[in-house]
Amino acid sequence: MALIVQKFGGTSVATSEKILAAARKAIRAHRDGDQVVMVVSAMGKQTDMLVDLAKQISDCPPAREMDMLLSTGEQVSVALMAMAIDSLGFSGVSLTGAQIGIMTDSIHTKARIKSISTDRMQKLLDDGNIVIAAGFQGIDEDFNITTLGRGGSDTTAVALAAVLGAATCEIHTDVDGVYTTDPRVLPEARRVHRISYDEMLELASLGAGVMHNRSIEFAKKYGVAIHVRSSLSDADGTMIVTDPESDQQAVCGAAVTKNEARVTVIGVPDIPGTSWEIFSRIAERNVTVDMIVQNVGAGGKANISFTVPLEELDETKSALRQAVDEVGADSFTCDDQVSKVSAVGLGMAAQTGVADRMFAALSEAGVNIHMITTSEIKISVLVHRDQAQAALRAVHHVFALHEQPAGVESIRSLERGENAVRGDVAAIVADLQGADMEELVINDVSLDGDQARVTIAGVPDQPGVAAQVFQQVAAAGVFVDMIVQSFDGVDGLATLSFTVPRSNLDEATAAAEGLRQQFDGLHITRGAHVAKLSVSGIGLRSHTGVAIRMFRTLSDAGVNVAMINTSEVRVNVVVAGAEGDRALGCLQAAFDAQ
Ligand code: ASP
Ligand code: MG
To answer: Domain residues for 214?
Structure first.
């Protein structure tokens, strides 16, 4: 006998028929001998309707009352679900977040879970009931009802699975699993059997809207196996677990974020503190910044480029009008016609030549790359929006994402097996109750002091250039780590920087020098000794500001940042080699202190 959590999203409980169908699924599992906890969302578009209603009354409704209102959606569906179970001859008990004892902080409309009591649920289960928990809601210390943010029922489900030591957390939804890319955009997309937490986190933040991001962070932290599957059938879906689908595959998925905007701040004094100054001005306005590229400066000035969601461009511009003066930069430029195309995969951390395959495919498809950033498990390029679809297809194709990799295990063997990694469930559960469950966890602050940097400025901004550079470097057998390509905002030229192990600096430089035969006016520089500092953890996505805290710490310490990249699980910066140890000490102090 196992305990399972089954979550049903809004579309899966939108009508009375669907509620009855969901109830039958739970009953089937219960009959098979499992203890079943259902987590249910509000019916259909109920939450949207309630939000609308509130807006009709007030432009700015008190957040506490929003939570009081929105939590009613789930209260309706749990009650109906319990009635459905009862009508089918079984016993179900509905519980609100407060009745369960889901304790949260008091940040209304986006509360975080602090602890969950299991006694009441466990007793009801042991007495033979199906427990039906209201998703998305909790209660704070003062008995105020709170909600976890839109889409938060996923987080409730994974959190309950964690504290109850469930074998699996099934997410029953209107799609039948996780795909290599959005099948509505590329019909050749393939449903994957399995995907790792880290890959799912990256893809989710790139707009693969299958699940609430915080729920994946949760699952990773507590080792909860998630099974995303269709509520319309009994077919297997996708398991979200620790390991990727295949060891051999460099890339597991690709994504396009269509509506992005590129911003370049030109002529930023290349001194400590400027990036912190700029990004904290933007963060104050709650704009999410991505693809930050600060390339190595020339003449004491650097250009910093980054992307923001298109709809946040105006807000960003007003932040920048202020920031440009404050830091003494020259000006800024924007491009509102760009899209971001990314490839994600745990395998790329261990394989060479992944980036250059991607760049070659884009070049063959005639796609011009405006900007590049890479992290351990993600490569993102910025392209013109007209070319986004072609770029996505080229990336999907070159990594053969439409084909199932060899040797993939069946999902059934994974489903019950994964829980083994959780070890002693009782110990984990006890552990959980001690801390705030959704607290940011920084698990590593590290220094790689053994890198070197090559920078090629004056690169023509045209298709195929990145491909040529990295093919040359790959041909020399050099493992390239960080890559950034910035947009210089002048004369259609770009600057490409990358880091390699120090011992490979000569080969890498020679490869770069080789490009002089094809392009005039290149300016090649190198940093024979640079240090890469990384802060990694769980919750970097939902606890924004880790990057800013990092910039601030380095700025206070007077350390100049030469290159930056960020991902869901890690923020990396490159600084001068001589500064590495001191910068590491400062970062350790800053992140331990939290
Ligand atoms: N009903 C809430 C929403 O629509 C929570 C959820 O569905 O996960 O955002
Ligand atoms: Mg939902």
So the answer is: 3-245+408-436
Q: How far is CA 286 from the centre of its chain?
A: 17
What is the full per-residue pLDDT of the chain (594 aa) written as tens digits?
799 999 999 999 999 999 999 999 999 999 999 999 999 999 999 999 999 999 999 999 999 999 999 999 999 999 999 999 999 999 999 999 999 999 999 999 999 999 999 999 999 999 999 999 999 999 999 999 999 999 999 999 999 999 999 999 999 998 999 999 999 899 999 999 999 999 999 898 887 667 888 899 889 989 999 999 999 999 999 999 999 999 888 999 999 999 999 999 988 887 777 878 888 888 888 788 888 887 656 677 888 889 999 999 999 999 999 999 999 999 999 999 999 999 999 988 877 778 889 999 999 999 999 889 888 889 999 999 999 999 999 999 999 999 988 877 666 555 554 444 444 555 555 555 556 777 777 888 999 989 999 988 888 878 888 888 888 888 888 888 888 887 766 667 888 889 999 999 999 999 888 888 888 888 898 988 999 999 988 777 666 677 778 888 888 888 888 777 777 788 888 888 999 999 999 999 988 744
Cα angle value 455/457/462 (rounded, 5°): 115
Considering the domain architecture, whether residues 75 and 187 belong to the same structural domain is answered as yes
Confirm or reject: Cβ of 565 under 6 Å from ligand 1: no
- Closest CA to ligand 1's atom 9: 150
Same domain, 133 and 230: yes
Q: Can you give the CATH number for the domain in which 67 is found?
A: 3.40.1160.10
Give the domain CATH number at 355.
3.30.2130.10
For the CA of 148, the closest atom of ligand 1 is 5
Q: Are residues 174 and 310 in the same domain?
A: no
Are both 155 and 207 inside the same structural domain? yes
Residues 488, 377, single domain; the answer is yes
Name the token pair of 212.
């609430």
Q: Is 152 in the pocket of ligand 1 (CB under 6 A)?
A: yes
463 lines ligand 1 (CB under 6 A): no
pTM of the model: 0.88
DSSP string, 179-206: BSS-TTT-TT--B-SEEEHHHHHHHHHT
Q: Structurally, how many domains does the chain consist of? A: 2
Same domain, 523 and 493: yes
CB 521 within 8 A of CB 501: no
- Same domain membership, residue 72 and residue 24: yes
- Evaluate whether 358 touches 480 at the Cβ level (below 8 Å): no
Ligand 2 mean position to 425 CA, how many Å? Answer: 29
Instruction: Check pocket membership of 97 for ligand 1, CB cut-off 6 A.
Output: no
Atom of ligand 1 nearest to the CA of 149: 9
Q: Is the same domain home to 239 and 258? A: no
| String of DSSP letters for 67-127 | HHHHHHHHHHHHHHHHHHHHHTT--EEEE-HHHHTEEE-S-TTS--EEEE--HHHHHHHHT
Which of 392, 384, 380, 338 lies closest to 355, judged by CA? 380
Instruction: Check residue 295 and report its DSSP letter.
Output: P
